[in-house]
Amino acid sequence: MSSGFDSESSYLRYLRQKELERTNRRTSVSAPGQAPGDSEKSASKPSLPPPPTGGPRFPGGKGKGGQGDEEGKRVRSTFGLRQLIGAAAVFLSSWLIYLSLRQSQVEIVWQWDQLPSPTKVYLVGDFTGDLRALRQEYRLAEEPFEQEIRVKKESLRRVESDLAGLEERIGLLRNEKGTVEKELKHLVEENEKKSQEIWERKGLTLERKRKQKLLALEQLIESRAQSLHLSLKLRADAPKDPEVWVNAFRLALYDAPRDIPVGKERKWAEALLEDWHRSEEEYQKEKASVGKELERLRVAIRERAASYLARLRELDRRIHEAEEEKKPIETERQAGTVALDASKGRKDSIQDNYALTIRNIPKRYVVGELSRGADGRYHWIGWDQDPKSAIRHWYLWACTEKDREQYWSLVQLPLERFTKVVLVLRPESFVRVRDLLQ
């Protein structure tokens, strides 16, 4: 191994030099118009030394003739393939790094349970101009209905004001009636109380004295009859009357013993009866006096009660008139309410149509749709956007539904090329689609 080529690269340079010499020789022989002696000059140039006879230091090398050339070709082919694979790997790594640096990313976090999670989340262009134009068109379309509703509301307000005035008047009349009824009740109770006091103070005393006198008279007659040994017969069902007792005493005297002065006893009985009659007359006079006093009280109360009753009848009449006056006004209010609801229904129908139109506006401005990952977040990745064709202002459009109403969130994105933006959707960012028309 005393060859002058100590490395694979030296041998390759040698092979390339030999190939170049062969090419030059072919060119010098075949070139037309070559001057004489040119070939000798080219032949006289020094040449590289021949390759070593031992062959290059490659496995399986023969080092002689055509076998060495074939071995060199195989070596050159293997080495070139290795260089190509290495260059491709470097290029692929560089390309992946380049792409990772040229991604525009958007990530959305949903942290709200009062609305369902968005069904769709898009990156869109600025469609607020279309919203303003549609809102203006809606206002022009709803203006006739708004004016009609205002007129009907004002008419209904006047009717309700009249009705409220009547209701207030009826309420005052009923309150006054309740006050009069309370006063009348108090008057009756006061009359009963005073009558009871008079009767207890005078009437009951008079009745008690009469009963005591009757009892004393009965006992006196019975005691007199016993002392005279008279057979006084009084029936159990006989009335408690002194005349009955005196008559029974007189009858008993017919069977009196002979030693009893019958005439004297009859006079005693008659005198007793006359005394009772005088006391009874006095009793009737006092009773009549008590009755007159009670009657005077009843007359006074009756006059006052009559005024209260007249007032109650007047209040009932006025309440009835107010109730009758209220009936046509209530009918008018009912008709006005129906007419107002009809106008509102027509306006709502217009609003529904425009609300459907609004839903289609953002679809024309969609740049991309965010996909929902397993973590519940929404993601979007944009690759190497061309700045000349990029939309200047991007928005995030999130859409969800609740109670058959669609809610939107439209948020302007602070998105720059080749950056990542993370947004958190909050409840205050969602608006009912119908409200966008207002």
Describe the structure.
Helix content is 63%, strand content 11%. Strand 4 and strand 5 form a beta hairpin. Helix 4 (128-227) packs parallel to helix 5 (242-253), helix 4 runs antiparallel to helix 6 (262-360) and helix 5 runs antiparallel to helix 6 (262-360). Mean pLDDT is 76; it is low at 1-8, 27-65, 98-102 and 386-391. It has a 5-stranded antiparallel β-sheet, with no helix packed on it. A 4-stranded mixed β-sheet has the order 4-5-1-8. The protein is of the alpha+beta class and 438 residues long. It has 3 domains: 8-101, no CATH class; 104-127 and 361-437, Immunoglobulin-like (Sandwich), CATH 2.60.40; 142-352, no CATH class. The longest helix is centred in the middle third of the chain and has 100 residues, at 128-227. It has helices at 8-30, 38-43, 65-101, 128-227, 242-253, 262-360; strands at residues 103-110, 120-124, 366-369, 371-372, 378-383, 395-402, 405-412, 420-425, 430-432.
